[in-house]
Amino acid sequence: MLGAGSWGTTFSKILADGGADVTLWARRPELAREISLAKRNSDYLPGINLPPSIRATSSLEEAVGESAFVFVSIPSQSLRSNLAALAPLIGPETVVISLMKGVEKGTGLRMSEVLEQGLGIDRDRLAVASGPNLALEIAKEQPTAAVISSASLATAEAVAKVATNRYFRSFVNTDVIGTEFGGVLKNLIAVAIGIVDGVGYGENTKASILTRGLAEMTDFAVAYGAVPETMSGLAGLGDLIATSSSPLSRNNTAGRLLGQGYSFTDVVARMQQTAEGLASVAPILTLAAARGVDMPIVQQVSQVLAGTLNPRDIAPHLTTDSLEPQGERPIDGRKNRGGPSLRRPFQRTLDQLRNGGRGAGGH
Ligand SMILES: NC(=O)C1=CN([C@@H]2O[C@H](COP(=O)(O)OP(=O)(O)OC[C@H]3O[C@@H](n4cnc5c(N)ncnc54)[C@H](O)[C@@H]3O)[C@@H](O)[C@H]2O)C=CC1
Ligand SMILES: O=C(CO)COP(=O)(O)O
């Protein structure tokens, strides 16, 4: 396991509790020592006792060793800089799994794409894990489901087998694009929910944003070739609910601070852990523009981050982008006057069905 933050450490516990032999790579030798000797990671998972079998090291070579599976859980924006050192250590049969939920600034690439480029390995040996997986709840062994996705079903199943134990269950799919984008996009909607929470709006506002946000997520993901159903699964709706409703979420917390009036710089300074959504907003909007996808909610989040929109003004903008009555779904026999953020996902789904289930576009 590469990355000894809250998720890398928790996922190591999941694997060890499922019977796997786990070595965790921590950048800082003192953290590796604490995990190995005290079986604790007090900075990231206070109060959690780790399984006695977990070992940690600050040597990448020692951590990777002869492992059949290498899981990667470091902040998305630092992935690429670690790959030159990692590439020569990966064996010809090794499967590499991304646990990360961001896209790379500058390239807009998903983490599995960055891994594919940087490690030069075949897609069939890559997988991603996603779903409603707030680390601390899982570290406390609360029952949770996740989804493992790979272009190769056999790879997804092999990973799911090791990532399953008495409190954690991994399902599988082969929609890597949808599974990965689900994890990225829900962070952006969770920031929006945090903002309105911080402002003090109530449940109707949040439910409206969640629902319209899911339509936006679906629109975007399908435009990039995802299967629409993935967005109503664990990696889409499931993770959207968990991240948007929990104070444990760093994205939700960052949003709440913005809603309370803190500037972007103040929020970054106050966050002790990675809030991936903050770095993903710009690349996602660039990708959305490239495929003609409207993302009014993400757009508003970006304006709040830039300080050009008062957080109090976010909800009225989010819930209506036109004063014309809009169809929530396309209405039979009538020209659809729904807003683009709702109309396009349904249109794309229809196109996909007509297209024999193939994605609307590749990436
Ligand atoms: N914490 C959670 O509940 C979940 C997090 N994730 C995802 O997992 C990924 C990692 O997040 P967390 O573990 O939560 O973050 P974190 O902030 O708790 O830990 C990040 C870890 O990466 C290390 N790190 C920072 N910069 C690095 C660099 N340049 N090179 C190597 N290591 C570096 C840090 O020292 C730390 O150990 C993110 O993409 C996040 O979205 C996914 C599901 C759940
Ligand atoms: O991905 C997560 C839950 O599934 C964690 O969310 P945060 O990164 O917002 O804490």
TrEMBL record:
- Can you state which reaction this protein catalyses? sn-glycerol 3-phosphate + NAD(+) = dihydroxyacetone phosphate + NADH + H(+); sn-glycerol 3-phosphate + NADP(+) = dihydroxyacetone phosphate + NADPH + H(+)
- Return the EC number: 1.1.1.94
Q: Which GO terms describe its biological process?
A: carbohydrate metabolic process; glycerol-3-phosphate biosynthetic process; glycerol-3-phosphate catabolic process; glycerophospholipid metabolic process; phospholipid biosynthetic process
Binding-site list for substrate? K101, R250, N251
Superkingdom, taxonomy of origin: Bacteria
SUPFAM superfamilies assigned: 6-phosphogluconate dehydrogenase C-terminal domain-like, NAD(P)-binding Rossmann-fold domains
Major localization class: cytoplasm
List every stretch annotated Disordered: 315-363
Where in or outside the cell it occurs: the entry states: Cytoplasm
Indicate the segments forming the Glycerol-3-phosphate dehydrogenase NAD-dependent N-terminal domain, all copies: 1-153
Question: Where along the chain is sn-glycerol 3-phosphate bound?
Answer: K101, G131, K186, D239, S249, R250, N251
Listed GO molecular functions? glycerol-3-phosphate dehydrogenase (NAD+) activity; glycerol-3-phosphate dehydrogenase (NADP+) activity; NAD binding
Q: Which InterPro entries match?
A: 6-PGluconate_DH-like_C_sf, 6PGD_dom2, G3P_DH_NAD-dep, G3P_DH_NAD-dep_C, G3P_DH_NAD-dep_N, NAD(P)-bd_dom_sf
Protein's pathway = Membrane lipid metabolism; glycerophospholipid metabolism
Q: Which Pfam families match?
A: NAD_Gly3P_dh_C (PF07479), NAD_Gly3P_dh_N (PF01210)
Q: Which UniProt keywords apply?
A: Cytoplasm, Lipid biosynthesis, Lipid metabolism, NAD, NADP, Nucleotide-binding, Oxidoreductase, Phospholipid biosynthesis, Phospholipid metabolism
Any idea which positions bind NAD(+)?
A: G3, A4, G5, S6, W7, G8, A135, R250
Matching HAMAP family = NAD_Glyc3P_dehydrog
- According to its UniProt record, which protein family does this protein belong to? Belongs to the NAD-dependent glycerol-3-phosphate dehydrogenase family.
This one is known as: Glycerol-3-phosphate dehydrogenase [NAD(P)+]
Gene giving rise to this polypeptide: gpsA
